[in-house]
Amino acid sequence: MTIETVPFEAETVLNWQTLTEALEAGHRLPRAEVADSFLYRGADTLLNRAAWIDGLGQLVKSANIFPGNGAHGLPSINGAVTLYADQTGVLEALVDFHLVTKWKTAGDSLLSAKKLARKDSRKILLVGAGTVAGTMIGAYSSIFAGAEFSVWGRNPVSTRAFAQSHGITAVTDLEAAVQGADIICTATMSKEPLIKGKWLQPGQHLDLIGAYRPDMREVDDAAMARARLFVDSRATTVHHIGELMMPIASGAITEGHIAADFYDLSKGIFTRRSDDEITIAKNGGGAHLDLMTASYILQAWRAR
């Protein structure tokens, strides 16, 4: 039995457009079964995610999230991805964890923006100056031709360095930057809202990526109440992530405010209704999306 190993270098054969198409196709298959477990030690998290999609296969992804690793010159997120054959359950491939995470995370929000953001969107604000923000530059650029990027971060020094390295503009006035953007992408580990609903303007789209724990959120109740809400998966977001749990608990929104998730794509309701509508998409990044992404990567690697 040969177990394939897919290295990070496989991204040379990947394409953002074909990834979003693979994610759409994956959601036309039978609904995924998913199981998540979280273990915490202070700010550190061990996340184990498993998914099974009939007709596609099974996946187990383990992720260690250690926010303090930067002080040691290490990535804050590490882990492993194992992919199993659909019909036999045999271990089929070991796919580079960082490759799957990078393409799944960005592809998830890119698919949302592809469906929800105005087609003429050009001004894109990145809130957070980390690895995910850097990936989103390439992802968004594949869909929104001529996109102009700006970035805001808590640390002005590292934010300026990020902006210089990516050839974009660093901003210090978050309120003004939000008000002037067509697309706002948040990729932080904030436990307090950074984006206020009173700042939002008609026609904007927000991709919320960063919050992944019950005690994390990036926008306030007013933002959630003003916008039409979408999630990648109701099952992995509504009762698991503070971005939704907190405004539901406060009464600012209800579960009924969520208009659609990716399993509604084929129904044609995961879409913007007007140019003036404000849309928010919460990226929860469930294991089923890892499975769809890892399967896409494996097939692209085999076809190289």
Structural summary, described in words:
The chain is α/β, with parallel strands linked by helices and 304 residues long. It folds into two domains: 4-101 and 288-302, ornithine cyclodeaminase, domain 1; 106-285, NAD(P)-binding Rossmann-like Domain (Rossmann fold), CATH 3.40.50.720. Helix content is 31%, strand content 25%. It has helices at residues 16-26, 97-116, 131-141, 156-166, 174-179, 221-226, 234-237, 242-250, 287-302, and strands at residues 4-6, 33-41, 44-53, 57-65, 77-84, 91-95, 123-127, 148-152, 169-170, 183-186, 205-208, 228-231, 258-260, 279-282. Strands 9-8-7-10-11-14-12-13 form an eight-stranded parallel sheet. The protein has a six-stranded mixed sheet with strand order 1-6-5-4-3-2. It is globular. The mean pLDDT is 96.
Distance between the termini: 22 Å
User: Which residues sit in consecutive blocks of at least 5 with pLDDT less than 50?
Assistant: none
Give Rg in angstroms.
18 Å
CATH architecture of the largest domain: 3-Layer(aba) Sandwich
| Spatial arrangement of strands, main beta sheet | 9-8-7-10-11-14-12-13
Major β-sheet, in short?
A: 8 strands, parallel
Q: What percent of the residues sit in helical stretches (DSSP H or I)?
A: 25-40%
| Structural shape | globular
Q: Which fold name fills CATH's third level, the topology of the largest domain?
A: Rossmann fold
Strand content: 15-25%
Mean pLDDT: 96
Secondary-structure content class: alpha/beta
- SSE pattern, N- to C-terminal: EHEEEEEHEHEHEHEEHEHHEEH
